[in-house]
Amino acid sequence: MPTVTYVEANGQSHEIDIASGVSLMQGAVDNMIDGIVAECGGACACATCHCYIDDSWVAKIEPASEMEKDLLDCVTDPKDNSRLSCQVKMTDALDGLVIHLPESQF
Questions:
Q1: pLDDT in tens, 2-43
Q2: Rg for the chain (alpha carbons), in Å?
Q3: Which residues have CB under 8 Å from 14's CB, separation 6+?
Q4: CA pair distance 93, 106, nearest whole angstrom
Q5: pTM, rounded to two decimals
Q6: Which domain covers residue 51, as residue numbers?
Q7: What SS3 state is found at 2?
Q8: Longest dimension (CA), the chain
């Protein structure tokens, strides 16, 4: 099973296994990772699952949809590597993925 490391704004990290096909948001919720609020439950409607994909992984993630890009315009402190974790699905190719959680969601 692929592994993801969630890095909190304070530097604390959590390495968890997430089955392929499961979103980064659902993996965080299932493992009680702080910083992923997920108010809409993964419907790409609220942006409370905002995260930053580690720079070394950005090119390996599918690009954001137009709907996701519109929501990312509303997040606090957006960056070029901002994504909604509900829209990024785990794959075996993403084993070792590192994401950073924004301070604004703590």
A1: 999 999 999 999 999 999 999 999 999 999 998 999 999 999
A2: 12
A3: 5, 6, 8, 31, 33
A4: 29
A5: 0.95
A6: 3-105
A7: coil
A8: 33
